[in-house]
Task: inverse folding
DNA sequence: GCCGTTTTCGGCCCGACTGTTTTCAGTCG
């Protein structure tokens, strides 16, 4: 079993225990363990084999022995007993808005409902309204939520969709005269790869007109809830947006609160209580005396004796402890990127010419751009034969003459073939400035075989970067079955950089693996894999992943000035 | 069920909003 599967089992266990009516802190313990496992950069099997399970935050004696049983036998007796008691399909029912554990338990016990479709049927037949505490309106609300759930393609929206959508809301809100400031919060601000909904926080001393303007935006399909400080809407495409409006005087605590993560906020509030202050979105409340209000976030952290913690690091993955001990790293910023090492042109499957790509990159202030088109065997992408690769070199040289302010380099995104060889012979690779080696085919090979292909590429002295190392797609294709610890370790040993592919549909490496690279002291490269000049904009998502991985600029090779980069490349052969 | 420069036992964040209620339970973030 992999990390994700074990995490999923514990998160389902938590849901089932909650429906059963177990003590809440026992449930939270399972959720915390599940969160911790899904953010773990190391393979759980490796941690288990080396007897380090108890070092995982949130894993104590009981959960460690459950992981032990799970990895030893592939089964968990505790879960099987629980699933015999509470139908596991009720976990799906919990996804419906306004349905939590109490209602799910009631539907099941009183009406025999165990699945989403049974709930929908019961609601449309008016069978829910007879239950205690349920009326016609609750029933209608639940029915609407089920329909909204099916209208959404997936549970969570890609950040590549959510980010531009949020900018649209922010621009319009900021243009209102009553609005002093507007920011995105939630998992979007933390740059998670997917978001459940958009959270928008506005500073305004007259909330009414702001709220009114927001509810009247044309994309709004229905209003799910609305109060004095908070409104929640659903858009035509099923996306949910929440708006918080708070006075400017305590915008800091409001933004901090709305940014989360929930686990980070819980830790922060515990820390606050230890100082005799109760922290909420409105400010710090001392046991007696006046409330402390914070107009900006830095003041919130300062009140607790902490440096400001970047939103991407607020996941309760040790950031508060690190901040208390003054060892929180400064993560890379978008402005640290000096160049692009992985971009395509119309020589393979890119949409524009080398020259246009170069102009666009120069316009963004980049110092260098590597044109790395596909190699010969990738026919669907019009991969370059050795002859075309030679010819392309002359065209790049010509473009270099006509575009100023940027250094153009020739690279290649070389196929790692199904048998583990690279798509060009070594003497061809040796002539290239940069070699990005990637897997595109035969991703479903058994673990040992596909791992060996990547290790082979890493050990080739001409390979500089491994492109989108796992092949996974966000909300889509699963990662190849790889021994990641072996791959990351080998990359570090061979001084090969691992790509954080910044395309929001890829984001590969993910944050957990990238953090593991940083822990191991390895190198990363944030690459857009651009097929069009607009794609250079993906850099923000790649930087988001790197910041979530606590990566300093130093660890990312394309933050280096050109001379240093060239030295690194030539030292590698 | 986890965890400890307040603790190895007794704690474990805080508030808004809704619907069905006459004071609150449930859900959400």
Result:
């Amino acid at each position: 079993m992999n990390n994700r599967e074990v995490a999923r089992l514990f998160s389902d266990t938590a849901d089932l225990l909650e429906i059963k009516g177990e003590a809440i802190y026992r449930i939270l313990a399972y959720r915390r363990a599940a969160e911790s496992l899904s953010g773990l950069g190391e393979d759980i099997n490796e941690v288990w084999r080396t007897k380090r399970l108890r070092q995982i935050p949130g894993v104590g004696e009981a959960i460690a022995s459950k992981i032990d049983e799970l990895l030893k036998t592939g089964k968990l007796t505790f879960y099987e007993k629980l699933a015999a008691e509470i139908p596991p399909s009720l976990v799906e029912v919990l996804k419906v808005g306004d349905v939590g554990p109490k209602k799910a338990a009631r539907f099941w016990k009183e009406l025999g409902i165990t699945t989403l479709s049974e709930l929908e049927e019961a609601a449309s037949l008016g069978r829910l309204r007879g239950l205690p505490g349920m009326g016609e309106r609750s029933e209608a609300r639940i029915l609407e939520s089920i329909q909204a759930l099916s209208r959404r393609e997936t549970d969570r929206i890609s950040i590549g969709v959510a980010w531009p959508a949020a900018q649209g809301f922010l621009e319009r809100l900021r243009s209102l005269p009553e609005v002093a400031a507007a920011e995105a919060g939630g998992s979007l601000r933390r740059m998670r790869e997917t978001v459940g909904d958009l959270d928008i926080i506005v500073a305004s001393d007259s909330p009414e007109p702001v709220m009114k303007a927001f509810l009247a935006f044309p994309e709004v399909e229905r209003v799910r809830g609305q109060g004095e400080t908070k409104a929640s809407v659903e858009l035509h495409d099923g996306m949910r947006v929440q708006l918080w409006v708070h006075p400017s005087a305590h915008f800091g605590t409001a933004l901090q609160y709305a940014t989360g993560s929930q686990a980070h906020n819980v830790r922060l509030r515990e820390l606050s209580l230890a100082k005799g202050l109760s922290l909420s979105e409105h400010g710090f409340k001392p046991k007696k005396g006046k409330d402390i209000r914070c107009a900006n976030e830095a003041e919130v952290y300062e009140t607790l004796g902490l440096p400001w913690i970047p939103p991407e690091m607020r996941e309760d993955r040790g950031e508060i402890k690190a901040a208390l001990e003054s060892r929180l790293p400064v993560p890379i910023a978008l402005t640290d990127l000096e160049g692009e090492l992985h971009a395509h042109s119309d020589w393979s499957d890119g949409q524009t010419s080398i020259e246009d790509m170069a102009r666009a990159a120069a316009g963004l202030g980049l110092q260098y751009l590597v044109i790395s088109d596909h190699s010969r065997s990738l026919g669907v992408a019009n991969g370059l034969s050795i002859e075309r690769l030679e010819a392309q070199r002359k065209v790049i040289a010509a473009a270099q003459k006509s575009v100023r302010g940027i250094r153009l380099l020739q690279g290649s995104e070389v196929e790692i073939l199904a048998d583990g060889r690279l798509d060009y012979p070594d003497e061809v690779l040796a002539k290239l400035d940069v070699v990005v080696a990637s897997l595109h085919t035969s991703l479903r090979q058994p673990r040992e075989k596909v791992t060996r292909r990547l290790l082979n590429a890493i050990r080739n002295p001409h390979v500089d970067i491994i492109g989108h190392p796992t092949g996974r797609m966000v909300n889509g294709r699963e990662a190849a079955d790889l021994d990641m610890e072996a791959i990351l370790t080998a990359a570090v040993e061979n001084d090969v950089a691992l790509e954080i592919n910044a395309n929001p549909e890829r984001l590969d490496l993910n944050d957990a693996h990238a953090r593991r690279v940083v822990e191991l002291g390895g190198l990363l490269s944030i690459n857009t894999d651009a097929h069009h000049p607009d794609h250079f904009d993906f850099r923000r998502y790649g930087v988001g992943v790197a910041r979530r991985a606590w990566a300093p600029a130093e660890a990312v090779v394309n933050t280096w000035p050109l001379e240093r980069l060239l030295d690194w490349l030539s030292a590698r052969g």
Summary: The two ends of chain A are 39 Å apart (CA to CA). The longest strand of chain A covers residues 407-415. Chain A is about 45% helix and 15% strand. Chain A has a mean pLDDT of 94.
